[in-house]
Structures are given as C-alpha cells and as structure tokens.
Write a structure and sequence with these properties.
The structure holds two protein chains of two kinds. Chain A is mainly alpha-helical. Helix content of chain A is 69%, strand content 0%. In chain B, the strands form two sheets. A three-stranded antiparallel sheet of chain B has the order 2-3-5. By secondary structure, chain B is α+β, with helices and mostly antiparallel strands. The chains are: A mainly alpha, B alpha+beta. The structure holds iron/sulfur cluster (2 copies).
Chain lengths: 323, 167
C-alpha cells in the first residue's frame, strides 16, 4: 500500500515537473521577444498582463486552438511523429538533470551524460523526419541543413564533454556537478567551455546557427508545413533544448549549485537563467552565417580545437592526476 | 581576428540599445504628424458657407483607385453642385491626386488617419459624412470669384463663307 502511494506521488510529481517545464518554455518564448525588443530598441509584447507576460498564455491558447491538419502531400505517420519526437527528446533530457544534489529524477544515473547526448541525436531524427515527411522542398533543405549542422557540431560537443569526463571521472550529471564544486570546471577547461558553448548553441539551432529555419531563405525550414500544436511541439523542443543546454553549461562548467547564501537549486536556476539571457543577447546581435561558413567552422576550427583540448586535458590528467 | 572583433562589436551595439526606445505606444501616445500629412479626404465649404464642389468629376476621373463616385445637378440659380458624392475608403490610398485635380479646392485631404471599421460597407462615406464645416486648408479661396460664373449667352457667331474669296 505504501509502495503504491509512493508511486502515485511520484507520478504526480513528474506531471508537475512536466507542467513546470512547459510553463518555462512558454515563458521563455515571451521573455525572448521582450529581451530582443529591449536590445533592438523596440518594446516587444507589453500589452497583456503585467509587463506583457500574458502574451505567453495568449500564444499557447492560439496554438492550441488552431486547426490540426496534415497536408495531403505529406506522409502522415512520420509527419505526425516528428514533432512528438522533438518535444520528447528535449523533455526527456530533464530527467537526468540535477538542480542540486538530490533534486532530480535520475541525477546520479551513471550514464546520464550519455543519455543526454543520445537524446540530442534523437532530436536530429525528429527534425529530419519532419522536413522529409513534409514533401516540401524548403522543408527538405531545412532538414538537410539541420542534420549536417547537428552532426558536425555534435562531434566537438561530445569531445569537449569527453575532456570533462576525463577530468571528473564520472558520467553521472550529479557527479560532474560535484566535480566542479570548490572550483568551477571552466577554470580547468576554458577552451572546452568555449567549444561547448558554441556547439551547444548550434545544437539548439538558434540564431546565429538557425540555418535549418532561416526564415529569409527557407520560409521556415524543416517546419514549413507545420501549424497549430504540431508546430508548437517543435517550438517547445527548441526552447526546452535551450534550457537544457543552458542548464548543462551551468552544471558542467559554471560550478552548478555552488554559491553563497542562497540554496543550491536557486543558484543553479540563476546560473541557467543568466546563460539563457546570454543566448538571447547573442540572438539579438549576431547575423546568420552562410551555410558553408558554418560547416567550415564546425569541421576546420571547432573539431581540431576540441581534439586539441582533449589531448591537453589527457596530458594534464596524466601528469597531475584528475580531480 | 576580425571575426571576433565583429562579434564583440555587434554584441556591444545591441547592449547600447538597452536605454533607447523608438517604439511609439500608439493608442496612448499620439503620433506627431507632418504638416502635409495626407489622411481622409473631406469636402469643404467656401468662405460664404456654400459647398465648394461643382461636380466637375475631375477628382473621380483622376483617382487611381476609382473610389470616388458622384452625380452633379443644377441648382435653381444655375450653379452646379454634387447631388451625391461617395468615396469608398476601403480603396482610397490617400495619394492626394483628387485634391490636386480639384479646381475649386473642394476636396481636401484631412489629417484624420484612424478610422478602422469592422464592416467593409462602413468605409463608403456619403456626402453628409464627407462634408465638413468651414473651409479647410484654404480659408480665402472662393472659386466663383474667379471663374465659373454663368454669363449671358453670346449671339450665334457669324461665320464667313469659306467658298467665297470675298471678305
Ligand atoms: S486620395 Fe487618391 S485614392 Fe483617395 S480618393 Fe483621392 S485620388 Fe482617390
Ligand atoms: S470635388 Fe472638386 S474635382 Fe471633385 S467634382 Fe467636386 S469640384 Fe470637381
């Protein structure tokens, strides 16, 4: 009986986590528009509710009320599955993300980091299937770009993480967070941090790396043919991916939950928030590179740098030992 | 290197905009219109209080969107006037050509710009709605002081006989 109660409580708590995450994604859409406005000497949405927060709700209601359609030329099953895959892969990553020691669903799972990398590969599938099943040339171009970009930037991302794992000796996210406890790991891994940061933005496919969407050339890229809540799922995936990457950056490199006075989970959230703010700022400032430039940087700059970083880390670890 | 300089420069540029707002919060803040703002056309009266329009149809002929329709008639005193005058503002583009074409300065573009409607039909303004009190932008002008006064018909002109060489 007690076991059943516990199970029930866990299910409810998971649902609450899910809802909170959805709420965060909705809020971020609004917050981003507001911040972009402020940075581009506009105002952004400011009509509904205090400071315009109601806009997030209005957008959600609008997406939910829109017609749920499948274009006649799309291949139905894949078209339906793709957005769910994207949203799922972004949501599932939060299962292993610890807010503080003990505050997570599976933070001390030994393969937590691997799970996140695997889910980000699943994300690629979602994006590609979405573009492919739409049977639209712009969607296909977007999907091809997305896949090439995601694969090219996943390599340096993984290698940067590998150096970190080498240093910390753990694949569990809680262990990695604990490794950065007295001194944030960015001190040991400045280059790795930079690589992870750049590749991380590329993984979220946001400006300046939004070539898969590229409104000015590809209509809306891989989700051109999507509307209503299916489009909402892609959006959800994008913004949750943003939160996930920001949370990973603060967890892995910025010392996770360490900080004076405030409780650990609050520090973690604050750091994540600041990183998200930096993402917004980057989006407001930087233009989109050309596609070949993007791949060029990925393969000719970021990848060699990340290998170099891994080598140096390995040598340093051999000489002076790991953390 | 120039790449990094460019990146930092653009980041700094956007950061500097934090203190600036160019957006006008429209319904609360009224925009400052230029002196020659072209808004909704109106029909004006001359200084004597008579309608200026003489139903010459030049405005309706010049209107590129053909949104002006009018019918003229004679007043008992012989003066022409517009029996009916309609402008469909759903089509008007506020180009001001009607104002330029009008010989009597009757039709003038006013500064009014905000007249959204929910029904398309409400955009068709009839003469009563178009007419305004007063003279608009040209307080002095009185067309009939210059022209357009009906004169006594001249006797039929005598033509010479083209077949004859005699004067
Ligand atoms: S402003 Fe231009 S479009 Fe409008 S009624 Fe006059 S001539 Fe026609
Ligand atoms: S408004 Fe002016 S141009 Fe138009 S019919 Fe009247 S007098 Fe003629």
């Amino acid at each position: 009986m007690a076991g059943l109660m516990l199970l029930f409580a866990q299910i409810v708590a998971m649902l609450v986590t899910l809802l909170v995450l959805l709420g965060i994604a909705g809020f971020l859409v609004f917050a981003e528009r507001r911040v972009l406005g402020l940075l581009q000497n506009r105002l952004g949405p400011n009509r509904l509710g205090p400071l315009g927060v109601g806009q997030a709700l209005a957008d959600a209601v609008k997406l939910l009320c829109k017609e749920d359609f499948v274009p006649p030329f799309a291949s139905g099953l894949l078209y339906r599955a793709a957005p769910i895959l994207v949203a799922f892969s972004a949501l599932a990553g939060f299962a292993v993300l610890p807010l503080a020691p003990g505050i997570s669903w599976a933070g001390d799972w030994e393969i937590g980091l691997l799970l996140i990398l695997a889910l980000s590969s699943l994300h690629v599938y979602g994006v590609f299937l979405g573009g492919w099943s739409s049977n639209n040339k712009f969607a296909l171009y977007g999907a091809i770009r997305a896949v090439a970009q995601l694969i090219s930037y996943e390599l340096p991302l993984g290698l940067a993480l590998l150096a970190l794992v080498l240093l910390a000796g753990s694949l569990a996210l809680q262990g990695l967070g604990a490794a950065g406890q007295p001194v944030p790991l960015i001190v040991y891994q400045p280059l790795g941090f930079l690589i992870f940061f750049i590749a991380g933005i590329a993984e979220t496919q946001r400006l300046p790396f939004d070539l898969a969407e590229a409104e000015s050339e590809l209509v809306a890229g891989y989700h051109t043919e999507y509307g209503g809540m299916r489009f909402g799922y892609f959006f959800l995936g994008e913004y949750l991916g943003l939160v996930l990457i920001a949370a990973l950056i603060s967890l892995l490199y910025l010392g996770a939950w360490s900080g004076p006075c405030l409780p650990g989970w609050l520090w973690m959230s604050l750091k994540t928030g600041v990183v998200i703010g930096i993402f917004f700022w980057l989006r407001a400032s930087l233009p989109r590179p050309r596609y070949d430039q993007l791949l060029h940087w990925g393969w000719n700059a970021l990848l060699p740098l990340s290998i170099l970083n891994l080598l140096l880390t390995a040598i340093a670890a051999a000489l002076w030992g790991t953390l | 290197m120039s790449l990094w300089r460019g990146l930092l420069a653009s980041l700094w540029t956007t950061l500097r905009q934090l203190r600036r707002r160019d957006t006008l919060e429209y319904p609360e803040q009224e925009p400052k219109l230029g002196e020659r703002w072209r808004g909704r056309p109106v029909l004006t009266h001359d200084p004597d209080g008579e309608e200026r329009c003489v139903a010459c149809e030049l405005c309706s002929a010049v209107c590129p969107t053909q949104c002006i329709a009018l019918e003229g008639a004679d007043r008992p005193d012989g003066r022409r006037f517009a029996q009916s005058f309609r402008i469909n503002f759903a089509r008007c583009i506020y180009c001001g050509l009607c104002e330029e074409a009008c010989p009597t300065l009757a039709i003038q573009l006013s500064p009014e710009y905000a007249f959204a409607k929910t029904e398309r039909g409400d955009f068709v303004y009839h003469k009563e709605a178009l007419l305004i009190e007063g003279t608009g932008k040209h307080p002095e002008y009185r067309y009939y002081a210059h022209a357009g006064v009906r004169t006594q018909a001249l006797p039929k002109p005598v033509h010479c006989d083209p077949r004859s060489n005699l004067p």
